């Protein structure tokens, strides 16, 4: 299969992720959209890895997955911290800092 | 190289010290001692490489050790040491997990060292993540304060979003070159540039723009810097930002330097916007902490000149700028932490009550504004000179000077409040002689950078 | 390094036979198990048998109650420790080629890992009861 197919697919996924991040108001859904962006990158990396006959991109995929897991741990903890205070994960509530 | 390992191990030691010890004073002492050890390791690293020597590659070319990078590491570790000595007590006051805060600072330093020595885009990614993830935690460390949690959530969402964009840039570069190794990426010839690699470079500019808070990717900065506990804001705005800038300049000067005609125009628009938005918005702030957040955006605008100008003076300039800006800002935040009220009115009449505090604040602010004889002047001189040498950025230099004049307004407002207004500023606790000594030392450093900047570049 | 590419080199449908077999066995096992318990188990459909079973006492309150934070903490730690195992896959595949140096590197990785584990143990993150 030509590389363009993979490029278009992962670019589409990436754009869905960006659009979701910018438009949704629920922190969890924003977070899921960010994960979608990272997974689009992973898909593209694997496709490029096959194209260049070089496995190093697949190792990078592993690293992205692990770092994403670390981010999930910290991020969910922060979201839970927020939820316990305001009983909502809607980011429209986050405007106290703007005087 | 030794410093990377040492920082990791010392961070783990710091983490475990919370189990063995409960006393906050003892933990601060241990943190300062371990940082001194780390500084020693850094100096050892610098000494071990000969002056003017070439690069050393480590770990299958993943890491490139250069004397300049080691020198930058050493200066940043020195700034962290100064920061812990100045505001260790304030860090302990944020919450109950004092040892963990220091451990996270050590881990952030590991990220700084990786960012000054990466030769592989994977290491760049890991370095940026090691730099960022502890910061999300530090921003939210004041768990009782809703503003702090808000800042953490906002910072986290923006940071994770940036990670996605950064990785997309890295992937597109890999797709067009077939390697993650920077020294193997062949961007010297214009013919090797194609649409995919240009898209990758644009993604990287956006991602770095988020990390160094350049406009229009700066919107998170004021909220996060304002909401995060003040001691950690000081750290985020100085050492972390400098490290991100150093990574930025390493990538764009060494790897993409040959094709600068493709990205200079994008970056110069970003620079102009950053200078404009940072300075103009800072004028209208009522809180000094928020003003400093906008001022950090404005200073980022000046640091962007170093990346734009793409020559040898620029790489010296970024080091001088990083040190001068870090020392002055750390000092300024240390003063802010002593006060209870962060508005301009909170500074009214400080000169009468605490003349020493008012004097050092004046020096820090003069340095941030870039008045001669202070570090800030020399820093701005270096980066603007580099931009003039580049040849095509004259309009931007004029614009930057205009903006520097505006910046004097909001910095001097604090000085006027301290010296010419009546009031009774409240302090958290009276200044101890140790505090005074440290503030004076910081002040001396600021002036030293202004008088003898070559001392801070001597050994590259 | 290109261990993953080696497998993909002879790209014929025949290569997917083991995967198909695996799928068949997995689905078959689940199907047989569920069907067998359904057929073999004794059935006595009385009213008492069909109500929700909660240790013999009548069910109380709503099922959607806030979960304890302890559970959340364990879940987060599981995510962290679970994903780190991913690094063992490339090591396991290249176990022989990497030799002594690779072994030491993995040992160091596990060592840091263990540090984190000891830390959360000492901090009492895994203590289930208060």
From TrEMBL, chain A:
Q: Does the keyword NAD apply?
A: yes
Against Gene3D superfamilies, the record matches this protein to: 1.10.287.3510
Q: List the subcellular locations.
A: Cell membrane; Membrane
Catalytic activity, reaction form: a quinone + NADH + 5 H(+)(in) = a quinol + NAD(+) + 4 H(+)(out)
Which terms does the record give in the GO molecular function aspect?
NADH dehydrogenase (quinone) (non-electrogenic) activity; quinone binding
Q: Predominant location of this chain?
A: membrane
**EC numbers on record:** 7.1.1.-
Enumerate the Pfam families for this protein: Oxidored_q2 (PF00420)
Q: Which PANTHER family match?
A: NADH DEHYDROGENASE SUBUNIT 4L-RELATED, NADH-UBIQUINONE OXIDOREDUCTASE SUBUNIT ND4L
NCBIfam families for this protein: PRK05715.1-2, PRK05715.1-3
> Whom does it interact with, and what assembly results?
NDH-1 is composed of 14 different subunits. Subunits NuoA, H, J, K, L, M, N constitute the membrane sector of the complex.
* HAMAP family per record: NDH1_NuoK
User: Mind telling me what this protein is named?
Assistant: NADH-quinone oxidoreductase subunit K
Per the UniProt record, the source organism is Taibaiella soli
From TrEMBL, chain B:
Quickly give the catalysed reaction. Answer: a quinone + NADH + 5 H(+)(in) = a quinol + NAD(+) + 4 H(+)(out)
State the compartments where it is located: Cell membrane; Endomembrane system; Membrane
Q: Which domain of life is it from?
A: Bacteria
What is the organism of origin for this protein? Taibaiella soli
Keywords (A to Z) from UniProt: Cell membrane, Membrane, NAD, Quinone, Translocase, Transmembrane, Transmembrane helix, Transport
The answer to whether UniProt assigns keyword ATP-binding to this entry is: no
Report the family membership.
Answer: Belongs to the complex I subunit 2 family.
Q: What is the lineage of its organism?
A: Bacteria, Pseudomonadati, Bacteroidota, Chitinophagia, Chitinophagales
Predominant place of localization: membrane
Return any one Pfam family short name.
Proton_antipo_M
Span of the signal peptide: none
Q: Where are the transmembrane segments?
A: 64-86, 151-175, 187-210, 231-251, 263-284, 291-312, 318-336, 356-373, 393-412, 437-457
Complexes and interactors: NDH-1 is composed of 14 different subunits. Subunits NuoA, H, J, K, L, M, N constitute the membrane sector of the complex.
Q: What does this protein do?
A: NDH-1 shuttles electrons from NADH, via FMN and iron-sulfur (Fe-S) centers, to quinones in the respiratory chain. The immediate electron acceptor for the enzyme in this species is believed to be a menaquinone. Couples the redox reaction to proton translocation (for every two electrons transferred, four hydrogen ions are translocated across the cytoplasmic membrane), and thus conserves the redox energy in a proton gradient.
Q: Which GO terms describe its biological process?
A: ATP synthesis coupled electron transport
Tell me a Gene Ontology molecular-function term this record carries.
NADH dehydrogenase (ubiquinone) activity
The membrane topology of this protein is: Multi-pass membrane protein
Q: What is this protein called?
A: NADH-quinone oxidoreductase subunit N
What residue stretches are annotated with the NADH:quinone oxidoreductase/Mrp antiporter transmembrane domain? 119-404
From TrEMBL, chain C:
InterPro entries xrefs: NAD(P)H_OxRDtase_bac/plastid, NADH_UbQ/plastoQ_OxRdtase_su3, NDAH_ubi_oxred_su3_sf
What molecular functions are annotated in GO for this chain?
A: NADH dehydrogenase (quinone) (non-electrogenic) activity; NADH dehydrogenase (ubiquinone) activity; quinone binding
Span-the-membrane segments of this chain are 20-40, 71-91, 103-121
- Provide the top EC class: translocase
Q: Name the predominant localization.
A: membrane
Tell whether Kinase is among the UniProt keywords.
no
GO cellular component labels: NADH dehydrogenase complex; plasma membrane
Q: Where in the cell is it found?
A: Cell membrane; Membrane
The Enzyme Commission number assigned here is 7.1.1.-
Topological category with respect to the lipid bilayer: Multi-pass membrane protein
Check the record and name the HAMAP family matching this protein: NDH1_NuoA (MF_01394)
Quaternary structure, per UniProt, is:
NDH-1 is composed of 14 different subunits. Subunits NuoA, H, J, K, L, M, N constitute the membrane sector of the complex.
This chain's function reads: NDH-1 shuttles electrons from NADH, via FMN and iron-sulfur (Fe-S) centers, to quinones in the respiratory chain. The immediate electron acceptor for the enzyme in this species is believed to be a menaquinone. Couples the redox reaction to proton translocation (for every two electrons transferred, four hydrogen ions are translocated across the cytoplasmic membrane), and thus conserves the redox energy in a proton gradient.
Which protein are we looking at?
Answer: NADH-quinone oxidoreductase subunit A
């Amino acid at each position: 299969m030509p590389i363009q197919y993979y490029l278009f697919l992962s670019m589409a996924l990436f754009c869905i992720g960006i659009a979701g991040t910018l438009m949704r108001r629920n922190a969890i859904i924003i977070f899921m959209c960010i994960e979608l962006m990272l997974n689009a990158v992973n898909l593209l990396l694997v496709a490029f890895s096959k194209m260049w006959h070089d496995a190093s991109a697949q190792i990078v995929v592993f690293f992205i997955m692990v770092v994403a897991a670390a981010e999930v741990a910290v991020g969910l903890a922060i979201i839970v911290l927020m939820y316990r205070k305001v009983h909502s994960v809607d980011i429209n509530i986050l405007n106290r800092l703007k005087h | 190289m030794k410093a990377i390992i040492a920082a990791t191990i010392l961070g783990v030691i710091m983490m475990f010290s919370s189990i063995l010890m409960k006393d906050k004073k003892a933990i601060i002492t241990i943190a300062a001692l371990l940082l001194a050890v780390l500084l020693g390791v850094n100096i050892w690293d610098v000494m071990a490489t000969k002056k003017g020597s070439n690069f050393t590659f480590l770990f299958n070319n993943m890491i490139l050790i250069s004397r300049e990078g080691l020198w930058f590491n050493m200066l940043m570790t020195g700034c962290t040491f100064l920061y812990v000595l100045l505001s260790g007590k304030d860090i302990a006051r944020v919450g109950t997990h004092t040892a963990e805060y220091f451990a996270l600072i050590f881990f952030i330093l590991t990220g700084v060292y990786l960012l000054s020595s990466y030769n592989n885009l994977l290491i760049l990614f890991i370095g940026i993540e090691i730099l960022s993830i502890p910061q999300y935690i530090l921003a939210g460390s004041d768990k009782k304060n809703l503003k702090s949690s808000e800042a953490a959530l906002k910072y986290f969402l923006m940071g994770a979003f940036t990670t996605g964009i950064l990785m997309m840039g890295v992937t597109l570069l890999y797709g067009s070159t077939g390697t993650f190794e920077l020294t193997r990426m062949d961007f010297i010839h214009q013919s090797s540039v194609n649409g995919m690699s240009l898209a990758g470079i644009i993604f990287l500019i956006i991602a770095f723009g988020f990390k160094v808070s350049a406009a229009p990717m700066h919107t998170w900065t004021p909220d996060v810097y304002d909401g995060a506990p003040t001691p950690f804001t000081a750290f985020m705005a100085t050492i972390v930002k400098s490290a991100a800038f150093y990574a930025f300049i390493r990538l764009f000067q060494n790897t993409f330097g040959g094709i600068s005609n493709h990205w200079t125009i994008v970056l110069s628009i970003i620079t102009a916007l950053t200078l404009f938005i940072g300075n103009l918005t800072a004028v209208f702030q009522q809180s000094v902490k928020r003003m400093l957040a906008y001022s950090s955006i404005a200073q980022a605008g000046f640091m962007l000149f170093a990346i734009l100008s793409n020559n040898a003076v620029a790489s010296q300039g970024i080091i001088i700028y990083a040190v001068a800006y870090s020392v002055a800002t750390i000092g300024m935040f240390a003063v802010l932490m002593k006060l209870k009220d962060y508005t301009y009115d909170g500074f009214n009449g400080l000169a009468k009550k605490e003349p020493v505090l008012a004097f050092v604040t004046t020096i820090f602010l003069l340095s941030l504004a870039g008045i001669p004889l202070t570090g800030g002047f020399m820093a701005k001189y270096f980066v603007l000179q580099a931009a003039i040498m580049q040849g095509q950025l004259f309009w931007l230099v004029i614009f930057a000077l205009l903006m520097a004049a505006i910046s004097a307004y909001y910095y001097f407002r604090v000085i006027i409040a301290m010296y010419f207004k009546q009031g009774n500023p409240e302090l958290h606790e009276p200044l101890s002689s140790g505090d005074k000594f440290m503030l004076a030392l910081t002040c001396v450093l600021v002036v030293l950078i202004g008088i003898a900047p070559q001392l801070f570049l001597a050994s590259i | 390094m290109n261990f993953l590419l080696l497998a993909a080199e002879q790209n014929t449908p025949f290569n997917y036979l083991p995967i198909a077999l695996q799928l068949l066995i997995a689905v078959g096992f689940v199907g047989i198990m569920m069907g067998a318990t359904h057929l073999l188990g004794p059935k006595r459909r009385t009213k008492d048998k069909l109500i929700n079973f909660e240790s013999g006492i009548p069910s109380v309150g709503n099922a959607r109650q806030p979960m304890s934070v302890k559970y959340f903490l364990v879940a987060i730690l599981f995510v962290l420790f679970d994903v780190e195992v991913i690094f063992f896959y490339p090591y396991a595949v290249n176990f022989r080629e990497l030799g002594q140096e690779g072994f030491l590197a993995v040992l160091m990785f596990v060592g840091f890992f263990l540090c984190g584990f000891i830390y959360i143990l000492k901090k009492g993150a895994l203590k289930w009861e208060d």
